[in-house]
Amino acid sequence: MLLTPISRARLRAIGTTLVGALALAACATPTPYQPATGSGFYRNGYADQQIEPNRYQVSFAGNSLTSRETVERYLLYRSAQLTLERGYDYFILADRDTNLRSRTYSTPGVGGFGGWGAGFGWGGWGPAWRYRSPAFGWRTWDPFWGDPFFDRSVDIRTVDKYEAMAEIVLGRGPKPSDNVRAFDARAVLQSLGPSVMEPDTRR
Q: Exposed (0-12), middle (13-18) or buried (19+): which is 56, by Cβ within 10 Å?
């Protein structure tokens, strides 16, 4: 059976809708406190890397339903947990930052970029990009020129998510009382523990 161009277009639209539905289902709840899974924009959870014997880089990335407050709280919790795992008592935040990461989706998929805006990745995107409209062929969208989708065949939406990162220095004994960036690891776990959402392992 040969497919007409219209049939192929419908199949592509159905496929795009199914992929979008699966992606939304995977992000139906905020990211729980767990080791990172995925990569790049799709990475969710905590990760850490040793830089020096007592210095680590720690991060926590949430999905679009995870608030900035939660992401930063989980970063502190992981820092405290890592501190005790390595046999230390306190950690000092040598550096800390929280980034807003954005990606722009289109439905149905547009352009030669698989539906992504230009300059994808870490919150940056170009002022214009091309997309293919089933009704009008190739067009260009510029966000400064209002709503160009008068044919209503393309839906554009931006997904925002937060990632918090820090470099921590680990120490033993009581935390330095004169350093506001120093945290007692056990106290942090005790204080934040009740608000940490672990993944649901019931299957």
A: buried
Domain for residue 45, yes or no? yes
pTM of the model: 0.62
CA dihedral (136, 139, 143, 147) in degrees, to 10, reads -10
Q: Is residue 200 part of a domain?
A: no
The mean pLDDT value for 137-162 works out to: 57
Domain count, the chain: 1
Q: pLDDT tens digits, residue range 12-40?
A: 655 554 545 445 445 578 899 999 998 88
Q: Exposed/middle/buried for 16, CB within 10 Å: 0-12, 13-18, 19+? A: middle
Report the C-alpha gap between 176 and 47 in whole angstroms. 26
Q: How many CA atoms lie within 13 A of 115 on its CB side?
A: 18
**pLDDT given for residue 41 in this prediction:** 80
Using an 8 Å Cβ cutoff, are 183 and 90 in contact?
A: yes
**Is 79 contained in some domain?**
yes
Q: Quick check: 59 and 48 in contact, CB under 8 A?
A: yes
Q: Which DSSP string do the residues of 157-189 spell out, in sequence order?
A: EEEEEEEEEEEEEEE-SSPPTT-TTEEEHHHHH
Amino acid at the residue 98: T
Q: How many CB atoms lie within 10 A of CB 117?
A: 24
Q: What angle do CA 38, 17, 159 make, to 5 degrees?
A: 50
